[in-house]
Design goal:
485 residues; alpha/beta; Alkaline Phosphatase, subunit A; 2 domains; nine-stranded mixed sheet; two-stranded antiparallel sheet; 17 strands; 36% helix
């Protein structure tokens, strides 16, 4: 029995209730009556769908979120935040005042400044600064808000990715997608409320905890869909198992689980019942969803997609198809942005352009596609990594290839749709791009704002665990008013 189960039984079982309430025939009779009412409420709760749509705290601007997570941390200095002064002092020693008391992941000694080898230009009527590495982003510049003043407290990948996804740097907290489905449910009873799609080199460093449900019931955790083979493991029936046999099996399991739930009121048993039923319905809904070959030729040309292949482009198209069907939160992870310069393939001049080639077209196509379908107004799209990159060359082991170390003090993200202000450039960094100097945005602020656009007050979306109420934003976070249209 795990800690959660012990806590539940301690609070609600008949034995504990009798032990704590007292003695005497009258007290026992009263206790029995009260506990029976609790069990009746539990049985009613057991029949409810935990993913049924729920009303927000106030009218929402958006119904769903697509989060494009660039695992490894893209270099803001080479994509969105041009620094002429940094270029001017390229290869000069970094000022000592920036290094005093500083911790780096890999930089040793006094590093040299590293200017960007790429040109920047202003895009759209909004005049957003954008690198030549992102020609497709330049086409949607007037639809997005670019935040150039993000910061985080973490400078290593796994804790930083966990912090960006869960609001805490250690495993065990619910992810943002889990909080949203817990607060709002899902609008499609045949699909999970929270879906994860992965491309790039491998899974993110933070692992499945990045989309876990933590102490929330596991029905709210992210469900990973695969690009090749069965979209979800074991979604197909084994050979010899008909739909009738599968249905009879699930009915028997449901009855057994309901007996267990009536005895323990353990929410994980309730989750098990709901998940078995969802899995059965997904056997019909998921294959059709994942078959992107049915999309028109012009859509494939816009995204750069190839049916049957594992790619960021395919996942962007799947993300649109998911939110189109009412999925609440879709998160795409694309790993490979950790350009330390330890090899030519992983440096700023070669590795970074390759990552842009893999993602730029599809990310821009997603915005265009949502807009042309009238869905962008109710769908928030977020793009970014877990932190930024240093204005200095890492030079790890004397490597001759230009690379940047991890940098938590300043980085860039962008967001579009769902009531986010179009064409906005928010925040600024100093002349070297080292520190934020205007409109600082903390990760808790970003989370609070995204929840706000979904109609949720981040201070009210709570869950009681281990004796206190927890929330995605912990005890921090303010809605970024300047980001909202």
């Amino acid at each position: 029995m795990n800690e959660i189960e012990r806590e539940i039984l301690k609070q609600i079982t008949r034995r504990t209730f009798f032990k704590q309430v007292g003695y005497g025939i009258g007290g026992m009779a009263l206790s029995s009556m009260l506990v029976e009412s609790l069990f009746a409420a539990g049985r009613q709760q057991g029949r409810d769908d935990p993913l049924a749509p729920r009303a927000p705290h106030f009218p929402a601007k958006a119904k769903s979120v697509i989060y494009l997570f660039m695992a490894g941390a893209p270099s803001q200095l080479d994509l969105f935040d041009p620094k002429p002064t940094l270029n001017k002092f390229d290869h000069q020693p970094c000022p000592e005042e920036l290094l005093k008391g500083e911790r780096f992941a890999f930089i040793k000694g006094t590093p040299k400044l590293l200017g960007s080898p790429f040109e920047f230009h202003r895009a759209g009527q909004s005049g957003q600064w954008v690198s030549t590495l992102l020609p497709h982003f330049a086409e949607i510049a007037d639809e997005v808000a670019v935040i150039r003043s993000m910061s985080t407290s973490q400078f290593n990948h796994a804790p930083a990715q966990l912090f960006m996804n869960t609001g805490f740097q250690l495993p065990g907290r619910p992810s943002m997608g889990s909080w949203l489905t817990y607060g709002l449910g899902s609008e499609n009873k045949d699909l999970p409320g929270f879906v994860v799609l992965i491309s790039g080199m491998s899974n993110p460093d933070g692992g499945k905890s990045c989309w876990g449900s933590g102490f929330l019931p596991s029905v709210y955790q992210g469900v990973e869909f695969r690009s090749q083979g069965d979209p979800v493991l074991y979604v197909s029936d084994p050979d010899g198992v008909t739909r009738e046999i599968r249905r009879d099996t699930l009915d028997a399991l449901r009855d057994l689980n309901q007996i267990q739930y009536d005895r323990s009121l353990d929410p994980e048993v309730e989750t098990r019942i709901a998940q078995y039923e969802l899995a059965y319905r997904m056997q019909s809904s998921v294959p059709d969803l994942m078959d992107i070959s049915k999309e028109p030729k012009e859509i494939h040309e816009m995204y750069g997609t190839e049916p049957g292949k594992k790619s960021f482009g395919n996942n962007c198209l799947l993300a649109r198809r998911l939110v189109e069907r009412g999925v609440r939160f879709v998160q795409l992870y694309h790993r490979g942005w950790d350009n330390h310069g330890d090899s030519e393939a992983n440096d700023i001049k070669h590795g970074l352009p390759e990552m842009c080639r893999q993602t730029d077209q599809a990310a821009a196509a997603l915005i265009k596609d949502l807009k042309q379908r009238g869905m962008l107004d109710e769908t928030i799209v977020v793009w970014g990594g877990e932190f930024g990159r240093t204005p200095m060359n890492e030079g790890k082991g004397g490597s001759p290839f230009p690379g940047r170390d991890h940098h938590p003090h300043a980085f860039t993200m962008w967001a579009a749709g769902g009531g986010i202000k179009k064409g906005l450039s928010l925040g600024a960094t100093d002349e070297l791009g080292y520190n934020v100097v205007a409109d600082p945005v903390d990760i808790h602020d970003l989370h609070a704002t995204l929840l706000h656009q979904m109609g949720l007050d981040h201070t009210r979306l709570t869950y009681k665990h281990q004796g206190r109420n927890f929330r995605l934003t912990d005890v921090y976070g303010n809605v970024i008013d300047k980001l909202i249209a």
